[in-house]
Amino acid sequence: MGVVKLILEIVLVVLSLLLTLLILMHKGKGGGLSDMFGGGLTQNAGSSGVAEKNLNRWTVIIALIWVAIIITLGLFAKFNLS
C-alpha cells in the first residue's frame, strides 16, 4: 500500500498545479479587484465560446479527481494503511 500512497501523493501534486493553471486561465466574471483598477472594461458581456466551455469541463473534472484523491489519502491515514 505504500507504493499506492506515494503514487497518489505525486498525482495529487501534479493535479494541484494543473488545477491552479486551469483556474488562472478562466476569464474574470467581474466585481473583483480587476474591476476596481479598470480591468473589467475590456470584457465581453456574457460571451462564452467553445474554448471557455471546454475549459470549464476540464476544470470540474480535474477538481473532482483532486477531491477523490484527497479523500482516499485521508482514509489511508485514518485506517493506518501505509
Automatic annotation (TrEMBL):
Cellular component GO terms, alphabetical: plasma membrane
Pfam family, one: SecG
Membrane topology: Multi-pass membrane protein
Principal subcellular localization: membrane
Transmembrane segments: 6-24, 58-77
Family recorded in the similarity comment: Belongs to the SecG family.
Name under which the protein is recorded: Protein-export membrane protein SecG
Organism: Bifidobacterium choloepi
Biological classification of the source: Bacteria, Bacillati, Actinomycetota, Actinomycetes, Bifidobacteriales
